[in-house]
Amino acid sequence: MPTEKTPNMQENPLYFFSIVIPAHNEEKYLGETLKHVCMLDYPKDRFEAIVVENGSTDRTLPIARGFERDNVRILQSEKGVSRAKNLGLDNTSQKSDWTIFLDADTCVAPLFLRELSKFLNNEVRRDAAVGAVSLRPIEKMHWYVPLFMSFYNFSRKIMHIPFALEIMRTSLRSKVRFDETIQFAEDVKLIEDGMRYGSFFFFPTRTVSTSIRRFEKIGWGKQLFLWGWQGLVLSKTNHRSDVYPVIR
């Protein structure tokens, strides 16, 4: 992960962020993800992390409990990423301004919340409801990966498609929920539902890195096609409840 020096931040109110992390059989990545959350350069009383372990059969739960502290809580739900995200959302602080849904294989650099708070204060429309961020790969990169990720980030910005991290105004928690009846594209549907209450934003940043394990396992072109097919076509049909293959 890149390291940054703390910049001179403008005088802006610091938003309260709730970070919800669903985790199912994520023993390989969760520890690193939580280590980075605990290293965030942000006042501890202005953010919280809620890990929701859901139906794991590996060491995900004990790894999560090893990071439990005042502003890091561990919850459990039945298996299902949407169930886990909804439970986390239900348990966010009443002080929360924005909820960040963070995949368990995605790491944020120390300045992520400071830069996001500044961006939301200065660059985002007042009616903003939901958003996504640009991503970098965690794993060692092939020469073509940066080019692919640049194209992927641009496409997601234009099409309002999240991946690995989505953001929602916490005040919408009683109106906008993850659909627990579907097995894929639940994040896309959240963005669509959230946009009924406000605008979409895209945060360009170098502070978020995610695993490219699915691309590496399935193939870059094939995975991109599958996501387009599933997210834009099948998610509109009764096939949205089909089993989504898990890559670990």
From TrEMBL:
- One Pfam family assigned to this protein is Glycos_transf_2
What keywords would UniProt list here?
Glycosyltransferase, Transferase
**Coiled-coil region(s):** none
This protein's superkingdom?
Bacteria
InterPro entries reported in the protein's UniProt record: Glyco_trans_2-like, Nucleotide-diphossugar_trans
Task: Supply one GO molecular-function term.
Answer: glycosyltransferase activity
What residue stretches are annotated with the Glycosyltransferase 2-like domain? 18-149
Q: Which family does it belong to?
A: Belongs to the glycosyltransferase 2 family.
Instruction: Write down what this protein is called.
Output: Glycosyltransferase 2-like domain-containing protein
Organism name: Candidatus Kaiserbacteria bacterium RIFCSPLOWO2_01_FULL_54_13
